Amino acid sequence: MAVAIFASCIFFLKIKKLKIIEKNRLKRSIKENGGQIAFGLNQQCTHVVTEDANALSPRHLKTIQKYELPMVNVDFIWESIKEKKLLQCENYELSQTLPFKTAKTSEEARRLYALSIQDLKKTGFELRKDFPYQAEYLVSEKLQEMLIADAVSSSVLSEEVGRFVELIWTEAVGHLNSLLDRPVTRISLNDVSRAEGILLQAKTTWEERGSLTELSAIMSEFYKVIPHKNVLDDEVSKKLIYIKRDLCQLIRDMLNISEINMSVLNPSSLSKYRALRCRIDALDVKNEEFNSVKHFENLIQVLNIYKVSRTTESMLFERNLGNVQSLFHGSSVCNFVGILSRGLLLPNVAEDYALERTDFGYLGSGIYFSNSVRTSIKYSQPCETDGTRLLLICDVALGNCWKTKQYYYCSSEGPPLCHDSVHGVRRTEKKNSIFEVFDLATERIFSKETTSLRPWLQYVCTFDLSCLDYTLLSHDLLNDISAGLLDRAGNPIPLKDIQIKGRIIDFVAEIVVFQTYENETESPIEAKYVFPLDDTAAVCGFEAFIKGKHIIGEVKEKEKAHQEYREAISRGNGAYLMDQDAPDVFTVSVGNLPPSTKVLIKITYITELSYENGNLCFHLPAAVAPWQQDKALNEITQVSMLSYSICSFSFFFLDARGFSMEILIGDVYLPRMWVEKHPDENSEACMLVFQPEFEVPFDHLSLHGEVIICLDCSNSMAGSAIQQAKEIALHALNSCHLTRKISVLKFGTSKTSLWNYVTFSFFSTATMGDSNLWKVLRYLCLLYPTKSKRNIILISDGHIQNEGMTLQVVKKNAVHTRIFTCGVSPTANRHMLRSLSHYGAGAFEYFDVKSKYNWERKVKSQTTRMLSSQCSSISIEWQTHVTENPKLSFTPSQICALFNHERLLVYGFILNCTEILHKLAARAFIREYEQGMLDESETQHEMKREQLKSNIIELSLKHSIVTQFTSFVAIEKRVCMFIFKPSFPHFFPKVGLNY
Length: 995
What we know:
Residues 479-607 form the VIT domain. Residues 267-469 form the PARP catalytic domain. This protein is α+β, with helices and mostly antiparallel strands. The chain has 27 helices and 41 strands. Residues 348-360, 437-444, 460-479, 627-650, 975-980 and 989-995 have low confidence and may be disordered.
């Protein structure tokens, strides 16, 4: 909860220059910190916030003077929030006495100006024709623009500035002379425009898969317009097209700044300086500003410092964003002619061509800055003339920074919502980050209007630079979850005692957890217990024992359960609420836990076991039972065990990751059916277990076939989805080491084959239009393999065009081409992706960002399936006489391909049921509703989902299973106190686990 910094403050806002989104963020920040916003200026206001006193009317100024109200700028708000206290206004006040007033006519303005000059002379001021350099920052922005314009058109150029201009000019011209067959001055701007058009034609021909002869002919036309000394015979590629496009930009820059001197063969340094259209001043070595920037780090030797000012940047600089910092930016010396003449440019060109950029760093494509010299010089290169380098210092309006410790790849269209820039946080001893300690800070901005040029350093670097390293990091998101009983502030509450009982039947298990907590404080608290379970688990029982009362949770519809919980808390009664926040995270809210009181909570859940390395694997996460390892290992809790003969050997271990047990089961590959009969009711539930084992562990046709990774780069993948897809593609590439032939292509409206897999997996962007997957599949299936199988890994959000045509192509070619789909994005069309894998004899995996620790396992599962034989076109005939709800007879209703060592569990139940198999069957029906495919047609699928919603809620309520529509709720009415205190030995004989 935000600290009430502005609790006693009422602000009157008069802000015109801020964008609407920034203005709304300012208002929201004031309210979140306890402040109020007045719609009118009156004596109740405590502060007036404005960026310019000119924005206030005479009536406002009179009110401010009458009630002596402080008039502060926007930084007062942000700095107070940053310091978490209300700051003094003195450092943020604007001048309340204006040095001028608005005149109605120009004649009156001239008269008032003359009178003002006379008044200043009478008080001892002298009229000067020149302006002191040190006083420039004291004048208005309009006057600063005029001073810059006067300096650009000056007829005098200092020796230091002349040498600097000649250096950057020589580097740019020298770079062009090494490539071009004629002087750049003999190329016209019309030639550059024509050359850019030819490159665009080459790009279009490449995307349409034109022949090499056509591409060579187009590039020959380009070389005629822009003659080169050495025309390489390399194969025409998009990278070559991009390099030539960048060359055209440099030529255009040189011609634009040389336009006023086109008739001069060798223009003077003054002419070149004027053509740059910016003011350059060399700082004196005795200047205070020179000494302030000279001693940055010992790894460079600063030779000269030049101060640069540009009129357009002074006018457009968005200082009102706030958080203005002086940061470094590095680039090659030959680029500085263009930077000085037109300013910094966002790298949109490369993104339009979907190509790799050399400035693409950890935070994506954009303009990069850093407060570290060591980081910035990575992007600079020594000049050919004297070996020196140039480093730019800019005023950067960072505004609201989005801070990250991980890679953040996205387009240059904009930062995350409600943010203006992206900040890479450096690594410290306490905080882990991919940004090294010496990087200090890395900033990425998305608008050139947020930068303003300041001094330029000319320096010599004392070491050679090393190439940047790009690696993918894996991170277990469950490690970020604070497990256990927590209060509202997130502080842990001690877990006093815990006991766990369970039973395992074949591939399924039922676990009962008893947990005792104690409120050791002197006041009641509302606490929440968070614990992770695997994504196949379902909670089916919740009870609480407190002060002699036994409270049993009931499953109710979520809105009703939450309403009863809030009402109980408001009445002062005890309340318990259990929800499922994510597929593998459950939470228990314990409301109004009395002081110095113990509470015993009993949670029952069911789960399915995994099968790994020939063993059944049961795992209990450590967060469910946070134990002391030595104590748990030394304590004897069970001296005998009643087991079935199918279990021939078991192995279990306990460590910081939790409790794990591996069971070797005999004849695991024999189909079997378990039937459970309710002891009290005429009800039965069934579980069919089928796990095939093929004689050949690997599919020979797949092992010698080909793997194609299809990366969806359509517009719908923009944002985090494309980054997730690229990470999955990299993992898939690393997992396909047994396959001899691997191809990677990205698709949208068209498709592109990728050769440098790792590089392009980083730099592929979601800018390829629509998802025309059917075209890609039809193209691939025209020449399908005859002696092997083709496996396609499709990484997409499932929003594809022409779904009917796509499925038709998949079905027609399923004999030789299998499709394994990987779903990304929270808005993924899972039905379509399941349909593709179902009819393509493959498998579907959804990659949820909330359970990213499972991604590597899921990718490995997909690549293992590709090398395995499979059973496809599986169907089940389930004969039953149930008439109560024929829609829910068995699940899953649609079965995809079944691969080697992968199990198939089919559930069905009859009439009323409450036991373990009954509950698992109910959970299976609910899971198919949430994740399964109910019909081939997506419209029919959604219609059936809507029709089954009421049945699913009824199933959840009947079998006490928490779903997205329901929650456990238990209400304790506190009327009197009980002396009886429950203990574990009292309850264990009653839980019914001794089978």
